[in-house]
Design a protein that fits this description.
The chain is 50% helix and 6% strand. The protein has helices at 36-40, 76-82, 85-94, 100-112, 118-123, 133-147, 157-182, 196-205, 216-228, 236-245, 251-262, 270-281, 287-295, 316-331, 337-351, 354-358, 365-375, 383-403, and strands spanning 5-9, 16-22, 30-31, 60-63, 68-71, 74-75. Helix 4 crosses helix 7 and helix 7 packs parallel to helix 8. It binds carboxymethyl coenzyme *A (CMC).
């Protein structure tokens, strides 16, 4: 049988290089081009990494044409139906679903780490009163390494595990504090008798004068959102975390870099932008105008929550979330039904339009998640913070995998230089 290799020939010089094909368990194989530069003197050129696999990973699998998403082999639909968010965290970190005993232990470890250092809380007062909670998240999470340096020896697997637990456990407390600070209310301490999601909602909405009890439907909806956002293989923020930590940076600093990347409107910031867009559309009669703008090359406006680099038939997370919208809005007494109607109508019109059909643009996870978050009372500027909370486990699981990867070295892309050729300073003769 012929060896699984690809021969790359430089037609100009006639030189060839044999590049081995690298197979995974599913999905397209990759061509190992590490010898290309040595043998032929070329780099590969792939802006935005449209055709580049940056690592091998056993965590998350996506088939964008078929709309399939698996965490550790389990379909997202099944995890959404049967698992809690903390179970999914365990699965992503350790590779298997936990036994009841393992789950109990994991839950108790996470609960142990929910409080943050009081010194860290004083950090918040240095921010402007109207700071965006994501700006606070980037700063405060980055500062964690200054408070928890007893777990930043990245060469020690136990330190790595403790940092992972700390990040998952403390993220809801940091997130809720960033919100409380931005509205001038006192911070609420975590309560260890509550579940992960209820605890977060209480830290968001309780005040010293009024206890808060989350609606069970809201808890279920938020739990679902966290599960659906927990990991998504080598997206921009995850690749940022991997690249930042490939230099040996500690996980708290690397996750802060991931948060910065997630904040952008083309990535995690889209859920906030979707609601702003739907509120701007207001009347479904205005939809045609917005569709026209989205198609206009000279207008920077895009239909937010539409399109995906990988999903080209549907985003399986959007399908699950759309159903949750139906269920939740029926149950909760909210004013968001018209917003949902507008979203449904906009989706219908876009999916029948040649522009969106030809470019395979479908609603993504962020299209409906904002409606759910809004309906359960989460303010708009906290939407991307919720995404951050959910994705923390993905970032940290990918980081742990990278740290155990024998092929791991500092990430260092190359470039095609297009600047001025060598020239002398005017003072040189
Ligand atoms: N509205 C209008 N046109 C669009 C849109 C959109 N939302 N998305 C892509 N296009 C067009 C784009 O103009 C281009 O057209 P042409 O080929 O004529 O130049 C074509 O579709 C391909 O777009 P692209 O920008 O090359 O695709 P990409 O893979 O680089 O970008 C994307 C993917 C998600 C950034 C993009 O679809 C987008 O900006 N969507 C809106 C923002 C959004 O919803 N982001 C959330 C992504 S899912 C959650 C997450 O990853 O965090």
């Amino acid at each position: 049988m012929a060896e699984d290799k690809v021969t790359i020939t430089d037609k100009k010089t006639g030189k060839t290089v044999e590049a081995p094909v690298v197979h995974g368990t599913m999905g397209p194989a990759g061509i190992d081009i590490r010898n290309l530069q040595k043998e032929l003197g070329y780099f590969t050129y792939d802006p935005a990494f449209m055709a580049t696999a940056s690592c091998k990973s056993a965590i998350t699998y996506i088939d964008g044409d078929a709309g399939i998403l698996l965490y550790r082999g389990y379909p997202i639909e099944q995890l959404a139906k049967h698992s809690s968010y903390l179970e999914v965290c365990y699965l992503l970190l350790y590779g298997e679903l936990p036994t009841p005993k393992e789950m109990e232990e994991f839950q108790s470890i996470i609960i142990d780490h929910t409080m943050v250092h009081e010194g860290l809380r004083r950090f918040y007062s240095g921010f402007r009163h109207d700071a965006h909670p994501m700006a606070i998240m980037v700063g405060v999470v980055g500062a964690l390494s200054a408070f928890y340096h007893d777990s930043t020896d990245i060469t020690d697997p136990r330190h790595r595990e403790i940092s992972a637990h700390r990040l998952i456990a403390k993220m809801p407390s940091i997130a809720a504090d960033s919100y409380k600070y931005s509205i001038g209310q006192p911070f609420v301490y975590p309560r260890n008798d509550l579940g992960f999601v209820e605890n977060f909602m209480r830290m968001m909405f309780a005040v010293p004068t009024n206890e808060f009890k989350a609606h069970p439907k809201s808890v279920k909806a938020l739990e679902l959102i966290l599960i659906l956002h927990a990991d998504h293989e080598q997206n921009a923020s995850t690749s940022t975390v991997r690249l930042a930590s490939s230099s040996g940076a500690n996980p708290f600093a690397s996750v802060a870099a991931g948060i910065a990347s997630l904040w952008g409107p083309a990535h995690g910031g889209a859920n906030e932008a979707v609601i702003r867009m739907l509120e701007e559309i207001k009347d479904p009669k205005e939809i045609a105008k917005f569709i026209k703008r989205a198609k206009d090359k000279h207008d920077p406006f895009r239909l937010m929550g539409f399109g995906h680099r990988i999903y080209k038939s549907h985003d399986p997370r959007a399908v699950i979330i759309r159903q949750m919208c139906y269920d939740l809005l029926k149950e909760l007494d909210t004013e968001d039904a018209p917003l949902f109607e507008t979203a449904l109508e906009l989706e219908k019109v876009a999916l029948a339009d040649d522009y969106f059909i030809e470019r395979q643009l479908y609603p993504n996870v962020d299209y409906y998640s904002g409606i759910i978050l809004k309906a359960i009372g989460i303010p708009l500027n906290m939407f991307t913070v919720i995404f951050t909370m959910a994705r923390t486990v993905g970032w940290i699981a990918q980081w742990m995998e990278m740290m155990e990867d024998e092929e791991q070295r500092i990430g260092r892309p190359r470039q095609i230089y297009t600047g001025h050729p060598r020239r002398n300073h005017p003072s040189e003769k």
